[in-house]
Amino acid sequence: MKVSYHGHAVVKIEHRDYTILIDPFISGNSLTDLQVDSVKPDVIIITHGHDDHIGDTVELAKKNNSLVIANYELATYLSWQGLNTHAMHIGGSYSFDFGRVKLTQAFHGTGYETENKELIYLGMPAGVLVMIDDKTIYHAGDTGLFSDMKLIGERHPIDIAFLPIGDNFTMGPEDAAYAANLLNAKIVVPIHYNTFPPIKQDPYQFIELLESGKGKVLDPGEGIEL
């Protein structure tokens, strides 16, 4: 299994015949190495209803007949646009052909901006646990620090955790490092930084806050074999 990072909060999981894309913000993402025309996800998982996380979901899902997994409100909204969706909610899990997905809590917002300058409420933000064979990948989504991260790590031992470090909208490096200790993941990868001026961070300084050997900065397109 290969798990790779693609700028901002975009994570790709490749296992056997499946390609799973989390938060596919490609168009307008100056940090990504992906192109909408070349990536072909079988499954898209969305953590919450902000534009920089929904991203190119509609176009990608229609081109590739992708299954879109999201919270109930967001999944319903996308189903109205003709997408094949599977609705879930926080605390719930479901077994798919590729593995099991569980949504965890995250503390953030979720208003989607339309072209008419309207905000649509798209349900509660979430983190995502993807469990394939004996491996567990945790994508925290956009969130602040919360103590129940310890329970998440205890209930589901994590092989690799993707944690936001950008500050301003999410955890900053210090809180993210504390979160890493609570989660006790084998590997921690920083995400959600440097895309926009308010979330400018040095990911290597974040790594220095972690227990030796646990943190890894991935350049866009770089991955880890699990």
The percent of residues in helical segments reads 10-25%
Uncertain residue ranges: none
Rounded to an integer in angstroms, the radius of gyration calculated over CA atoms is 16 Å
Say how many strands there are.
15
Measured by DSSP, the beta-strand proportion falls in: 25-35%
Structural class: alpha/beta
Q: Calculate the mean pLDDT score and round it.
A: 97
Q: How would you write the strand order of the largest sheet?
A: 6-5-4-3-2-1-15
The tally of helices reads 6
**What is the correct CATH architecture?**
4-Layer Sandwich
How far do the termini sit from each other? 5 Å
Write down the oligomeric state: single chain
SSE sequence, one letter per element:
EEEEHHEHEEEEEEEHEHEHE
CATH superfamily label = Ribonuclease Z/Hydroxyacylglutathione hydrolase-like
Give short descriptive properties of this protein.
226 residues, single chain, alpha/beta, six-stranded mixed sheet, Metallo-beta-lactamase, Chain A, seven-stranded mixed sheet
Give a brief description.
The protein is of the alpha/beta class. Helix content is 19%, strand content 30%. The chain has a single domain, classed as Metallo-beta-lactamase, Chain A (4-Layer Sandwich), CATH 3.60.15.
Kindly describe this structure.
By secondary structure, this protein is of the alpha/beta class. It has a single domain (2-218), classed as Metallo-beta-lactamase, Chain A (4-Layer Sandwich). The chain has six helices and 15 strands. It has helices at residues 51-54, 57-64, 72-79, 149-155, 173-183, 203-208, and strands spanning 2-5, 11-15, 18-22, 43-45, 67-71, 84-88, 93-95, 100-105, 111-113, 119-121, 126-132, 135-139, 160-164, 187-191, 223-225. The strands form three sheets. Strands 6-5-4-3-2-1-15 form a seven-stranded mixed β-sheet, with helices on one face. Strands 7-8-11-12-13-14 form a six-stranded mixed β-sheet. Strands 9-10 form a two-stranded antiparallel ribbon. Strand 5, helix 3 and strand 6 (84-88) form a beta-alpha-beta unit. Helix 4 packs parallel to helix 5. The radius of gyration is 16 Å and the shape is globular.
